[in-house]
Write a structure and sequence with these properties.
Oligomer: heterodimer
Largest interface: A-B, 25 and 29 residues
Radius of gyration of chain A: 13 Å
Distance between the termini of chain B: 36 Å
Helix content of chain A: under 10%
Mean pLDDT of chain B: 93
Strand content of chain B: over 45%
Largest sheet of chain B: 7 strands, mixed
Helix content of chain B: under 10%
Order of helices and strands of chain B: EEEEEEEEEEE
Low-confidence stretches of chain B: none
């Protein structure tokens, strides 16, 4: 079945550092890929998405490119801020089901 | 705009008690979902409803039942709660077709503790 594997955390960074969170997937067909973010005490909200191979999703300085050849959808941000501290989830959707990775906790220190 | 509303936000149960988590969305979405979130496990799908009148099992359906009451409402029932069901539960909805490109909108979560 479909599954998502993402980099284990926690990740601790200094402000203005570069962030990468790796995400790889297993799926049949052509899934859609998502990154969701969960700020402390809140529900999840969409950060970005890509619905076909080679698409790049971007939002709030974050980017991820749908790489079918490597079955990956890595999340990157060039210069993180303290406000980016959160849990990040990679997710895959094929049909009506949407499956999530285990989540990566990111802490950014001033 | 309320989005996805879950009730209750907090609940403490004793082992063997029953309860129902309520969820309603006002975005006219066709699909609704129940997930549970546990430390280190991410979100795991319990049940989903692709459209009004249909429900299907997700990854971890044992011990739960659901009802898609109408297009807006999707409830999750624990018939006989167990400590292993202590978790944070999220309801979500989206407009989706067979391709699954739609964004999920989440409620704020319901924290359930089973003693």
């Amino acid at each position: 079945g479909n599954s998502v594997t993402q980099m284990e955390g926690p990740v601790t960074l200094s402000e203005e550092a570069f962030l990468t969170i790796n995400c790889t997937y297993t799926a049949t067909g052509y899934p859609s890929l998502f990154w969701y973010v969960q700020y402390p005490g809140e529900g999840l909200q969409l950060l970005l998405k890509a619905t076909k191979a080679d698409d790049k999703g971007s939002n709030k300085g974050f980017e991820a490119t749908y790489r079918k050849e490597t079955t990956s959808f890595h999340l990157e941000k060039g210069s993180v801020q303290v406000s980016d501290s959160a849990v990040y989830f990679c997710a895959l959707s094929s049909g009506y089901k949407l499956s999530f990775g285990a989540g990566t906790t990111v802490t950014v220190r001033a | 705009n309320a989005g996805v509303t879950q009730t209750p936000k907090f609940q403490v149960l004793k082992t063997g008690q029953s309860m129902t988590l309520q969820c309603a969305q006002d975005m006219n979405h066709n699909s609704m979902y129940w997930y549970r979130q546990d430390p280190g496990m991410g979100l795991r799908l319990i049940y989903y409803s692709a459209s009004e009148g249909t429900t299907d099992k997700g990854e971890v359906p044992n011990g739960y039942n659901v009802s898609r009451l109408n297009k807006r409402e999707f409830s999750l029932r624990l018939e006989s709660a167990a400590p292993s069901q202590t978790s944070v539960y999220f309801c979500a909805s989206r407009q989706t077709s067979g391709r699954g490109t739609g964004e999920l909108f989440f409620g704020e979560g319901s924290r359930l503790t089973v003693l």
